[in-house]
Amino acid sequence: MHMDLPPGVTFAIEDAPASSDAEALAWGLEAFNDLAWPGHQPWQTLGVFLRREGKVVGGLAGELYAGWMFIKYFVLEDSLRRHGIGRAVIAAAEARALERGCHSAWVDTFSFQAPEFYRKQGYAEFGRLPYPPVGERIFLRKRLAPG
User: Measured between alpha carbons, how far is 3 from 142 in angstroms, rounded to an integer?
Assistant: First the structure.
């Protein structure tokens, strides 16, 4: 691969980039977006955690941006499943997202994970990708605010 880089600029492919380097890209994109869309909702993180003796045993980590909550990670240890806890975690995250100005939420999950759980919470499929050799990646969304 050949490219003409300006003096002082290097090119690197990194398998384990520093989180600060990845954040530099996020903030660069945010600055670019702000020029085209002044005043849009800023990037924010969100977490809902279940802990036992200080150790995380389940919960949700996500990002809020431009009116959307993205559920990045959601998991419960087996002993916490099928007791309504997952439903409560999702509801708490959605309520906080609404408080912070989000109108909708989206998530992606594999067909062997929890698509039916999300459907029961009111999420509707909007996309699907084949993921050989096992299953499919399913994208779902939910409107949180009327209108």
Answer: 42
Q: What is the pLDDT of residues 17-71, one digit of tens each?
A: 999 998 898 888 888 888 888 877 788 999 999 999 999 999 999 999 989 999 9
Sign of the CA dihedral with 13 first, then 17, 22, and 28 last: negative
Nearest to 85 by CA among 73, 96, 97, 77: 77
Q: Model pTM? A: 0.85
User: Rounded to an integer, what distance in angstroms lies between the CA atom of residue 96 and that of residue 38?
Assistant: 23
Q: For residue 133, which amino acid is it? A: P
Q: Domain 42-143: which topology?
A: Aminopeptidase (3.40.630)
- Cβ neighbours of 85 (radius 10 Å): 15
